[in-house]
Amino acid sequence: MTMYSDNSSSIVRLNIGGKKFCTTADTLTQREPYSMLAAMFSGRHTVCKDSEKGYVFVDRDGKHFRHVLNWLRDGVVPNLSDLECSELLREAEYYQLLGLVDGITEVLNKRKEDEEMDTELTRTDIIKCIQSEKVRLRGVNLSGLDLSKLDLSFVDFSYACLKNVFFSRANLQCAKFRDVDAENTIFHNATLRECEFTGANLRGALLAGANLQSANLQGKKNLFIYIYYLIFLSDACLVDCSFCGADLRSAHLQTADLTNANLEGANLEGANLKGAKLNNANLKGANLQRAYLRQVNLRGTHLEGAKLDGANMLGAIR
Fold first, then answer.
1. Distance CA 52, CA 34 (A)
2. Confidence tier at 77 by pLDDT (50, 70, 90)
3. Pairing label, strands 11-16, 56-58
4. 160: pLDDT confidence band, cut at 50, 70 and 90?
5. Reduced to 3 states, what is the DSSP secondary structure of residue 196?
6. Which of 10, 84, 225, 242 is placed for a possible disulfide with 80 were both Cys, Cβ 3.0 to 4.6 Å?
7. Burial class (CB in 10 A: 0-12, 13-18, 19+), 21
8. What pTM value is reported for the model?
9. Residue 282 C-alpha from the chain's centroid
């Protein structure tokens, strides 16, 4: 964050995690007078500025700070995705912007209520369904449901809307997720062996702790064979997905789009990442031993502490 005052007006120069912003002390203090920002620029406290241009630095991600400033200027909650709203909520809580916190919470609660009204089945309905021998929920809207800890093995969810569904610790072995919309869906610690995710949208999904050994996440231009013990994620959108600590040994990730994905601590031993997009992917502490990274662009990929022994990196761009 930056602050700079001249003789004619109270101009504030901000450096938020490397992103530069310029505003006024009035903007930072008037709408949310009890916030951290208001306290910093009320004139009651001394703030540290860099010696060259008078920037005040705050060690936060600057991605959403423009929304913070626009809230302080206009008092309008921005129209963002659920994931972005959650990220902005964390920033609002940090800066102690109580009005913005309330506004975002109200928006998220309203969306959840609307999704629940549109949902065609309840958790109780699903429990009744899975007692039958063969369950097909193809094309059904299940968005926002809590299906955690249920035995949903062999269920066919193809073409269903599964946005924001909670599958935490659920048994989804052999389930079909062909062409589902599973944006922001939680698969934390779920059993996903032999699942098919062909054409699925998993943007923002959380798969931390999921067992995806020998998973197939090939892109659409590649041919693949259906083999026992594989998870099929061909054509899947994996941008912003979290695979933190996931078991991805020998996974087929050819041409997978893992932009901004979190694979910190994941086990990718022997995984095939040929043609994968890893821009800004987090692979800190990941096991990439014997992984196929040939001609992969690793610029912008975070590899601090990653194990690369025996990895094929011929022609990789670093």
1. 30
2. very high
3. parallel
4. very high
5. strand
6. 84
7. middle
8. 0.49
9. 12
Rounded CA gap, 174 and 140, in Å? 18
Backbone angles phi, psi at 155, to 5 degrees: -70, 140
Q: Is the distance from CB of 265 to CB of 286 less than 8 angstroms? A: yes
What's the gap between Cα 55 and its chain centre?
31
Rounded Cα distance, 35 and 101, in Å: 11
User: And the tokens for 310?
Assistant: 């025996």
The encoded tokens of residue 230 equal: 């594989």
**For residue range 302-311, what is the model confidence (pLDDT) as tens digits?**
999 999 999 9
What's the pLDDT band for 73 if we cut at 50, 70, 90?
very high
CA 19 – CA 68 distance, rounded (Å): 13
Are 221 and 241 a contacting pair, CB within 8 Å?
Answer: no
H or E element, residue 15: strand 11-16
Contact status, residue 65 vs residue 19, Cβ threshold 8 Å: yes
- Residue 210 burial (CB < 10 Å; 0-12/13-18/19+)? buried
Tell me the β-bridge partners of 136. 156
- Token pair of 184, please? 């922001």
Q: Which of 45, 36, 44, 51 is nearest to 2 (CA)?
A: 51
- The token duo for 6 is 């001249």
Element (H, E) at 105: helix 98-118
Q: Are 170 and 191 in contact (CB under 8 A)?
A: yes
C-beta contacts of 101-104 below 8 A and 24+ residues apart: 103/71, 103/77, 104/77
237 in helix, strand or coil?
Answer: strand
Exposed e or buried b for every residue in 243-268, given b needs 16+ CB within 10 A? bbbbbbbbbbbbbbbbbbbbbbbbbb
